């Protein structure tokens, strides 16, 4: 039977949990690369976070917002925010050093006919600076605490822990992609991060719900270790995970495609990248990180160790032997 | 957990309920004639106001004070938490950008200082404005100021009766018989041509009412008020002088901006100029407030601002009210002073323990809400004036919105195609679920935009597109459960639909609860755009629950009655091939986990 047909019928049996070494190493490598990028390159923070310069001028001839934006981009200014304010133009850029802003004043004067002395330049503080970011960060911390509390109640503390670790894993890797690609981090991308947060958790919760249901039936006489049961649950929800991810990623992929190919630089591209990477990593982590991690934690429990030992001694399969050997 | 039979029998009724919900939202849209969502700063532009700090010597305010002001203004402007207004420093100035055109009024209120004080009234009197209002019951308050400005062209005239403006020669009318002390009925001695609060000292020199003049009973011949003389006991003579000089008929004396020292007695006007007061030192101030809310007073239709005090403030408040309660008229009143102006000065009918208070005044819903927001987030450490107001265009190019919408449509089309290919007949349920979710989301966003100031920005739109995935997931979870039930081969489709629902429902609710908790925590703890985004996230999660419970489930239950689905037609998505029911070839070596 072909893979497609087996997928359609939901008859797949991949030993995800057994390959935990592979997943852990892969994730470790990704995390190291991401941290390296964050330390090395840092994030390219937008004007909203760092503050910038505001050019204000009144063109003598009619120009479009698009033309003004292009004029700034041609001077190597990354993602200027161009606004009209009455018949004046207001352009917010990253913080420019004096020589740059002087040159920009000249260019504006030449292109739009405004006398140089009437091109007004002001510095502007971060609208998303200090307080806003701090509050968002605290919100995030409280969010994690609330989620851990809720999942500990709805499931169990170990599942909550595994879900949160997977979540952090997704966030770090997504941030790493930004660090290496140099894409701008704007408030929009920050919101993209938050979407990933919800999405990644949602995915993990559905998988864990099934694991909880399956492993609840494990008793002293059962023929399965915790890892085997968890792996079954994983395979069981695999179709759902893949379908859901595909359905969620399709629109984002479309946005990313249009954002990069048709529009070029812009908020849309930055936002779509965060979502795309986050969702791909989120799908991977809920299957290959959260569940193996949960199994690693659970197999330490005496109850499941006993099952594993018993099955190992009766030749109960590879997974059982591994579980018994690793933790016994 | 409810038994599966609870939602078993009446899918039609649930669907009707959903239809009613959609119609209610749609009807609200039609009634309010709002058919498009309000857009945020990045998509539709808005109003930008530059606030410049006003300092005594014109020097730059210290950086940290400016930062504090920025934070307070940001809290106020985002008070409801779902608008994405931006506040930034620019040099010494503060630039506020609010989505939507013509919002400068809103920004004006945001920029008021909002220093709140509670002061016991030591003396008070009616001004010509009030007298005239009472006499003529003319609702237009701007009549009296013009009438009374005439005599102020004759400066330095002592409180002589000759200086009285004609129209206010009727102080005796006071038809309501309101108990007022009106020893000094002459409002006109403050004759300074520039009566800004800055040169009050100046005015004191020009106007001549000596303390002795006010000390003497000096009953106004026209005044028939029962308490014609003010009790100067305990009043600082300097304040008394200011009081005598204070001209409440001049709006400049009752505008925003007087920074009254809470540690000193103070002469002040009522906000509409109808009374003036000598007030004791402030015993309770704005920082004693823990929270403020706007509401309607019980049993009336009057809007009030309710205050809760912190514990120390509650004690002071209790002390202040009992002092006032034990005092003689007019000292039985406590004035609520906002930015140096008396909003209201109610009689204290009994001491108020318990740390709660209500401010009444001429509030409507909007002004009460605004005042509550201002008080809640504290007073600004600086005084500001608006130096420029601009209507600005969107921060994002039109192309970004168009690109987002086009790709959203492409993405949706891909999802529809995929659902139909994979789930065949049942794919229609998925697609219809998405359609219902879209309708609910659109109407909810429009209604919330109209009534709660919710504005869509680009990240919101992308977030809504992503939420498609989550809505679809609920369906997928449910369907895979139905398949499990069918696989066991023991059930009919109609039974499987119900049994699977119980299992799927739990998963969906737990997963949605996680999303909802996330949304609530972020909404409560963060500000500006993040809070707005969290709001949208919570909204879509709720809509997901509504759609799954009120559409997907009952709709599938209805379909299960159709032969096409119940018999497992190859195009139904419930065929034997899909279900592996008839497959005994042995290639299915995996059993369902539940049997494990």
List the topology elements.
The complex is a heterodimer of chains A (328) and B (596).
Chain A lengths: L2 H7 L10 H21 L3 E2 L1 H4 L1 E6 L7 H10 L6 E5 L2 E7 L3 H15 L7 E5 L5 H25 L2 H25 L2 E2 L1 H29 L10 H38 L3 H32 L3 H12 L4 H10 L1
Helix pairs in contact in A: 2-7, 2-10, 6-7, 7-8, 7-10, 8-9, 8-10, 9-10, 11-12
Chain B lengths: L10 H22 L8 H4 L1 E9 L8 H15 L8 E5 L2 E7 L4 H7 L5 E11 L1 H9 L6 H7 L50 H7 L4 H5 L21 H9 L20 E4 L5 E11 L3 E8 L6 E7 L1 H15 L8 E5 L2 E4 L11 E5 L4 H13 L5 E10 L5 H55 L5 H30 L5 H33 L2 H32 L3 H4 L9 H4 L17
Antiparallel strand pairs in B: 1-3, 1-12, 2-3, 4-6, 4-9, 5-6, 7-8, 8-11, 9-10
Helix pairs in contact in B: 1-12, 1-15, 3-11, 12-13, 12-15, 13-14, 13-15, 14-15
List keywords for this structure.
heterodimer, A: 328 residues, Multidrug efflux transporter AcrB transmembrane fold, Alpha-Beta Plaits, 2 domains, four-stranded antiparallel sheet, two-stranded parallel ribbon, 70% helix, elongated, B: 596 residues, alpha+beta, 3 domains, five-stranded antiparallel sheet, 17 helices, 12 strands, 14% strand, transmembrane helix (chain B), SecD_1st (chain B), transport (chain B), protein transport (chain B), translocation (chain B)
Description:
The complex is a heterodimer of chains A (328) and B (596). Chain A is α+β, with helices and mostly antiparallel strands and 328 residues long. In chain A, 70% of the residues lie in helices and 8% in strands. Chain A contains 12 helices and 6 strands. Chain A starts with a helix and ends with a helix. Chain B has 3 domains: 4-39 and 394-583, Multidrug efflux transporter AcrB transmembrane fold; 46-110, Alpha-Beta Plaits (2-Layer Sandwich), CATH 3.30.70; 116-377, Gyrase A, domain 2, CATH 3.30.1360. Chain B is built from 17 helices and 12 strands. Chain B is elongated. Classes of the chains: A alpha+beta (328), B alpha+beta (596). The interface between A and B is large, with 98 and 89 residues. Chain B: Keywords: Cell membrane, Membrane, Protein transport, Translocation, Transmembrane, Transmembrane helix, Transport. Chain B: Residues 138-163, 181-196 have a biased composition (Low complexity). Chain B: Residues 67-121 form the Protein translocase subunit SecDF P1 domain.
